[in-house]
From TrEMBL:
<keyword id="KW-0735">Signal-anchor</keyword>
<keyword id="KW-0413">Isomerase</keyword>
<feature type="domain" description="Thioredoxin">
    <location>
        <begin position="27"/>
        <end position="203"/>
    </location>
</feature>
<dbReference type="InterPro" id="IPR017937">
    <property type="entry name" value="Thioredoxin_CS"/>
</dbReference>
<dbReference type="InterPro" id="IPR050553">
    <property type="entry name" value="Thioredoxin_ResA/DsbE_sf"/>
</dbReference>
<dbReference type="GO" id="GO:0030313">
    <property type="term" value="C:cell envelope"/>
</dbReference>
<feature type="signal peptide">
    <location>
        <begin position="1"/>
        <end position="29"/>
    </location>
</feature>
<dbReference type="GO" id="GO:0016853">
    <property type="term" value="F:isomerase activity"/>
</dbReference>
<dbReference type="GO" id="GO:0017004">
    <property type="term" value="P:cytochrome complex assembly"/>
</dbReference>
<keyword id="KW-0732">Signal</keyword>
<dbReference type="InterPro" id="IPR013740">
    <property type="entry name" value="Redoxin"/>
</dbReference>
<dbReference type="GO" id="GO:0016491">
    <property type="term" value="F:oxidoreductase activity"/>
</dbReference>
<dbReference type="InterPro" id="IPR013766">
    <property type="entry name" value="Thioredoxin_domain"/>
</dbReference>
<protein>
    <submittedName>
        <fullName>Thiol-disulfide isomerase</fullName>
    </submittedName>
</protein>
<dbReference type="Pfam" id="PF08534">
    <property type="entry name" value="Redoxin"/>
</dbReference>
<dbReference type="InterPro" id="IPR036249">
    <property type="entry name" value="Thioredoxin-like_sf"/>
</dbReference>
<keyword id="KW-0201">Cytochrome c-type biogenesis</keyword>
């Protein structure tokens, strides 16, 4: 068990990391035509793109902590409470449209969503940057059919910092049937790896 002091220090470090990520998002996405990162994002080549390295962390059932807790709105206006995740494996993918690895992994995420949907597994995007039209354009382009949270204010991002901070975009988090963090992938995911992590969470 972690002491109260340890948990407070861990939360403080996590919130600081997430705050830096929120501040960095506009820089990474780019906002002017003269910004080389913006040009790279539009080109989709990913040069000098700052993101996670695809590292995977899986947590044993005894080390998953408490069920996650937050309530936030999807782009369609529906409010979703994390308490509704209980009884189902849930996948949260943090993304935004100007993120090259987010585009690269989009079709794999949709494919896995369709594969696991009959088992009751839920997928939610968590968009940390875009307005509704921009997010919708991305979803049309890549055929994404699962819903996304509109998280420009950081509600979901900061809530997750209490459990396992995303730290980069994209980040994918798998929750077990009790709503606890089962695994995290920092950066572009590998389809086979995420499939295995979902199956592991289903069995635990």
């Amino acid at each position: 068990m972690f002491s109260l002091s340890s948990r407070r220090h861990a939360r403080a470090r996590a919130v600081a990391a997430v705050s830096l990520l929120l501040l960095a998002a506009p820089v990474l996405a780019g906002c002017t035509a003269s910004d080389s990162l913006a040009q790279q994002a539009r080109a989709g080549d990913g040069k000098n793109y700052i993101a996670g390295d695809g590292s995977v962390q899986e947590y044993t059932a005894g080390n998953r902590g408490n069920p996650v807790s937050f309530s936030s709105k999807l782009f369609n206006g529906e409010t979703v409470d994390a308490a509704s995740f209980r009884g189902k494996v849930t996948v949260l993918n943090f993304w935004y449209a100007g993120c090259p690895p987010c585009r690269a992994e989009a079709k794999d995420l949709e494919s896995l969503y369709q594969q696991f949907k009959p088992t009751g597994t839920q997928f939610y995007g968590v968009n940390v940057r875009d307005d509704a039209p921009t997010a919708a354009a991305f979803e049309r382009t890549f055929g994404t059919t699962y819903p996304s949270f509109e998280d420009r204010n950081g509600t979901v991002l900061l809530a997750m910092a209490q459990y396992v901070p995303p730290q980069s975009v994209p980040t994918t988090i798998v929750l077990d049937k009790q709503g606890r963090v089962s695994a995290r992938i920092l950066g572009r995911l590998d389809k086979g790896t995420l499939k295995s992590l979902i199956q592991s969470a289903q069995q635990s």
